[in-house]
Specification:
This protein is mainly α. The protein is 76% helix and 0% strand. Helix 1 runs antiparallel to helix 2, helix 2 packs antiparallel against helix 3 and helix 3 packs antiparallel against helix 4. The structure holds heme C (HEC).
Length: 104
C-alpha cells in the first residue's frame, strides 16, 4: 500500500531512530516534527471511506494519529524519552492493524 511507503514507514523509522541517535539540533527536531505531523495525518487518511476496512481498522488508524500527536508534543519539548514513549505507543497500532488486516 503506497500510503505505508509514502507516509508511514519513513516517518515512523525517523521516530524510532531517536532511540539510537537523538536529534542534535533545532533543525533536526524540526525535521522530526514534520515526520510526526505526516504520521498524524496518515492515520486520518487511512480512515477515508475508500481506505477504511472497518471499525477496528479505524481504531488502529486513529490510535496511530493519537500516538503521533503525542510525539509532536514530546518533540516540541525536545523530550527524547517522551518521543520514544510515543514511538512505543505507535508500534502498538502498527502491529494491531497488521495482525488483523495483513494477510500473510
Ligand atoms: C489501519 C491499518 C494499518 C496501520 C495502522 C498500519 N498499517 Fe502498515 N500496512 C497495512 C496494510 C493493510 C498493509 C498491506 C498493504 C498491501 O496490501 O500492500 C500494510 C503494509 C505495511 C508494510 C509493508 C510494505 C507495504 O507497502 O505493503 C510496512 C513496512 C508497514 N505496513 C509498516 C507500518 C508501520 C511502521 C505502521 C505504524 C507506524 C503501520 N504500518 C501502520 C495496514 C496498516
Amino acid at each position: 500500500m503506497e500510503i505505508m511507503d509514502a507516509m508511514v514507514v519513513p516517518q515512523s523509522d525517523a521516530l524510532f531512530a531517536v532511540g539510537g541517535a537523538a536529534p542534535a539540533s533545532d533543525a533536526q527536531w524540526a525535521a522530526l516534527r514534520l515526520d510526526a505531523i505526516v504520521l498524524m495525518e496518515a492515520g486520518r487518511a487511512l480512515t477515508l471511506p475508500e481506505r477504511s476496512q472497518g471499525a477496528d481498522w479505524d481504531a488502529s488508524s486513529l490510535g496511530m494519529s493519537a500516538a503521533a500527536a503525542q510525539a509532536v508534543a514530546a518533540i516540541d519539548a525536545q523530550d527524547v524519552d517522551g518521543a520514544l514513549a510515543a514511538g512505543n505507543a505507535l508500534i502498538e497500532h502498527c502491529t494491531g492493524c497488521h495482525h488483523q488486516y495483513l494477510t500473510p
